[in-house]
Amino acid sequence: MRVVKLFGRRPRRNDAARLGPRRDSSAAVNRVDLEELTPELLPYLGQAAYLQLVTFETLSRAVATAPSIASKEAMSRCAALSLAKHHGLTAEVVRKGAQPGSTMQPYVAAIDHYARVTAGADWYETLVTSYVTAGLLDDFSRQLAGGLPSDASERIVALLSGDDGHELIVAELRAAIEANPRLASRLALWGRRLVGDTLLVARSALAAHSHPDEARLEPVFTELIAAHTRRMDALGLTA
Amino acid sequence: MRVVKLFGRRPRRNDAARLGPRRDSSAAVNRVDLEELTPELLPYLGQAAYLQLVTFETLSRAVATAPSIASKEAMSRCAALSLAKHHGLTAEVVRKGAQPGSTMQPYVAAIDHYARVTAGADWYETLVTSYVTAGLLDDFSRQLAGGLPSDASERIVALLSGDDGHELIVAELRAAIEANPRLASRLALWGRRLVGDTLLVARSALAAHSHPDEARLEPVFTELIAAHTRRMDALGLTA
């Protein structure tokens, strides 16, 4: 399996000055773990922005293939929200005096590969992909942003915490599963496939140029999986 | 050829109260002609919103198939601008107490057919489609909006007059034609095909339930074609 390399930088475990204040004590342990693996700002932005563009492309396929005009309209809302996040991230790139294209370029091939293997075979799988991968990756990128320089960190965390329109996707999928209960097992299986590929992306992001202590990463991934399980629960599916 | 029926309403030639002030004397003759054919607000919005969604879908295909990350990023800007216009139009639908989906529904089949025949075979044709059809249809919808109730009219004209990012498409296409001059004749031909199909949509919009005096419509279409010719000139192509 091809490994996607993201956020490649040696962790700076003693770089205490970059940890910043704990803003949310409930997740502080995990966030501090990730903050200790803080990436440089531009590589972080290049990868997060391109992942968000891939999420937008998935959603725009969902717009194009929607089975009804109401579904199309709902997915267009999600697509707009994702695209706004992408442009918020590229605005941070420009703010640092860099070009969005060249900043994303090093990560295109690997993320395009990830996008291909998670594309989904039909409208329902595409919706599950939008929901599951965007949920996991936004959670991950948001946690990692906690260790960026503080002004950028605050803007990026706020950006990634914004509305994602996922309630619209949940409503579409719940209605589809209710109308055709046989969808449930196929989509649950697809969700499991996606979470595997997506956690591999996240793990590679942290591990590309370093060898983080697996035990220290464990709680981070446990939290990501717990949030994923809640998202699958919202669909009435087993994670 | 299947005729797309749009804006079906009998023209109200004596409905002078709806003409409103002339805001731009240079195009006043043509605008008044279109205002005399003013559609009802909701049918107007349903059709204009769905045409804009189709423009977004074309642009999102351009994002997905872009040959470079810089081109992809540029097209994502255009897609966001088009999607914002679509949502601006559906917000007007909601403001009138209607649902965007059901308001667009009557026009979906015909506009989907138009979208299929104007889709384009590759990245270059898709870009020309985005540029040529959005240019013509936004001009047309903006002129027609002049005759809507005045508060909605002002908002819609402002919305449709907003940035369309077309300078980004022009830059992409000029660079492509410069790199491969043989593209020019193929894209000029494609542009001519598009203008035919698109003016047919526009004409049907006015003619569906009425029989407007062809002579009176002539200057309207002459102006739309003149603006189209300027757009093709900007590409260095013959209209």
Features:
homodimer; mainly alpha; disordered N terminus
A few lines on this structure:
2 copies of one chain form a homodimer. The radius of gyration of chain A is 17 Å and the shape is globular. Chain A is mainly alpha-helical.
Overview of this structure, please?
- The structure is a homodimer of 239-residue chains.
- The first copy, chain A, has 239 residues and is mainly α.
- Chain A has helices spanning 28-35, 41-64, 69-95, 100-117, 123-145, 150-160, 166-179, 183-207, 214-234.
- The first copy, chain A, has one domain: Up-down Bundle (Ferritin).
- What level of helicity do the residues of chain A show? over 70%
Ranges of chain A where pLDDT stays below 50 over 5 or more residues in a row are 1-30
Number of strands of chain A: 0
* Biggest contact: A-B, 29 and 29 residues
Q: What is the count of helical runs of chain A?
A: 9
List the helices and strands and how they pair.
Two copies of one chain form a homodimer.
Chain A: H1 28-35, H2 41-64, H3 69-95, H4 100-117, H5 123-145, H6 150-160, H7 166-179, H8 183-207, H9 214-234
Helix pairs in contact in A: 1-9, 2-3, 2-4, 2-5, 3-6, 3-7, 5-6, 5-7, 5-8, 5-9, 8-9
